[in-house]
């Protein structure tokens, strides 16, 4: 550069100071201005991002509660009920008498009723009993007699098994249409006869029920006394007074050599007593009862050959009003059954009278009502006697 140019450059610096500052600003490095603490803090607050202060849990909860909108948390019924119970004042619900009584019953201690009240049956029990008795009466045709009560004692099968030594052979005393008969002794010391229903036999639950109810209706010295019965599972048993001399059949037919036949007076005494029992059924009972099973094996003998009629499983109530007969299926034992009943199924008290005549012939002749060992024309006793 010549001296003229250098002089001109210096003069230009003196005349243009703004340009010098701009050039200086472009050429010189950036220098930090002297620190101003107050201004730095203000600028720092405006420029720097927001920083979270150290956590203060209690303060955070308070601030959050003041600043944030209320948000409903997911429903928790049990927690809501607990919180509601703690926070809300106690409110009395409108009265509900039925609910109050139920709650009171659950909350109060159990009180024991007096013993005489606890023994009383409920109304439901009485209704059920009346319904059961009603169905039984209707089944037997005695629904118009509301005063009928079953007075016989109820036994368990275990009690009767103990009374008969578990039905051992040495306790066995006979067998009939109903089933086997065993001798037993009750805890009271009373000797009894226990009849066990044969489930495969000729008689079933219907005859068992008829037997129990008929004995509840009928009471006479010449009728066997029913002491009790047992309905335990599929077991059906009847308990009678014990008749030590067995049945009339035992003293009339197939006698062992060492056994004496009945004398004439004894035979007539037995016939008279059996007729009295039959008379009670026909004339004294109301309504009349048709025995339908009168035969020598059903006439049991007490001491001194006192006779009693037994086995009322086939008994039917006789006709009432202007009815002359009862229509029913033919039941009974061949040889004792009245021929008009066997042919038509029409049952009357005369059917029993016919059977009584057959037994009377047995007493007189000593022959069986029907004996298959006899010749063809002599097997039926009535046919043989009327020849």
Automatic annotation (TrEMBL):
Chain positions recorded as ATP binding sites: 195
Alphabetized SUPFAM superfamilies for the sequence: Protein kinase-like (PK-like)
GO molecular function, a single term: ATP binding
One cellular component term from this protein's GO annotations in UniProt: plasma membrane
Primary localization: membrane
Upper classification of the organism: Eukaryota, Viridiplantae, Streptophyta, Embryophyta, Tracheophyta
Species annotation: Solanum stoloniferum
Highest taxon of the lineage: Eukaryota
InterPro entries the UniProt entry points to: Kinase-like_dom_sf, Prot_kinase_dom, Protein_kinase_ATP_BS, Ser-Thr/Tyr_kinase_cat_dom
Ranges of Basic and acidic residues composition bias in the record: 12-26
Record region (Disordered): 12-140
Name under which the protein is recorded: non-specific serine/threonine protein kinase
EC number: 2.7.11.1
Membrane topology: Lipid-anchor
PROSITE patterns from the UniProt entry: PROTEIN_KINASE_ATP, PROTEIN_KINASE_DOM
Keywords (A to Z) from UniProt: ATP-binding, Cell membrane, Kinase, Lipoprotein, Membrane, Nucleotide-binding, Serine/threonine-protein kinase, Transferase
């Amino acid at each position: 550069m010549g001296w003229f140019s250098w002089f001109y450059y210096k003069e230009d610096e003196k005349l243009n100071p703004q340009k010098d500052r701009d050039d200086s600003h472009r050429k010189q490095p950036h220098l930090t201005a002297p620190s101003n603490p107050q201004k730095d803090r203000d600028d720092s607050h405006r420029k720097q991002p927001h920083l979270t202060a150290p956590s203060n849990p209690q303060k955070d909860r308070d601030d959050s509660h003041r600043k944030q909108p209320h948000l409903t948390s997911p429903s928790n019924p049990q927690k809501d009920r607990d919180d509601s119970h703690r926070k809300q004042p106690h409110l009395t619900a409108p009265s509900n008498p039925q609910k109050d009584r139920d709650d009171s019953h659950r909350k109060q201690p159990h009180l024991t009723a007096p013993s005489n009240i606890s023994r009383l049956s409920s109304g439901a029990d009485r209704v059920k009993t009346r319904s059961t008795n009603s169905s039984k009466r209707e089944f037997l045709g005695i629904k118009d007699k509301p005063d009928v009560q079953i007075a016989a004692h109820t036994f368990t099968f275990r009690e009767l098994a103990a009374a008969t030594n578990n039905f051992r052979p040495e306790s066995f005393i006979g067998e009939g249409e109903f089933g086997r008969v065993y001798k037993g002794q009750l805890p009271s010391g009373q000797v009894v006869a226990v009849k066990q229903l044969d489930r495969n036999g000729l008689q079933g639950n219907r005859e068992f029920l008829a037997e129990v109810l008929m004995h509840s209706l009928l009471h006479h010295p010449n009728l066997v006394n029913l002491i009790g019965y047992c309905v335990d599972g599929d077991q059906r048993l009847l308990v009678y007074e014990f008749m030590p001399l067995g049945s009339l059949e035992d003293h009339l037919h197939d006698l062992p050599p060492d056994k004496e036949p009945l004398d004439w007076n004894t035979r007539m005494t037995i016939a008279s007593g059996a007729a009295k029992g039959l008379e009670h059924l026909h004339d004294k009972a109301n309504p009349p009862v048709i025995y339908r099973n009168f035969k020598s094996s059903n006439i049991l003998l007490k001491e001194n050959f006192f006779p009693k009629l037994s086995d009322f499983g086939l008994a039917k109530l006789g006709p009432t009003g202007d009815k002359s007969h009862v229509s029913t299926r033919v039941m009974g034992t061949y040889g004792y059954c009245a021929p008009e009943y066997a042919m038509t199924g029409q049952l009357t008290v005369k059917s029993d009278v016919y059977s009584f005549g057959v037994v009377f012939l047995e007493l007189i002749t000593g022959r069986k009502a029907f004996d298959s060992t006899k010749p063809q024309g002599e097997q039926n006793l009535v046919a043989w006697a009327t020849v």
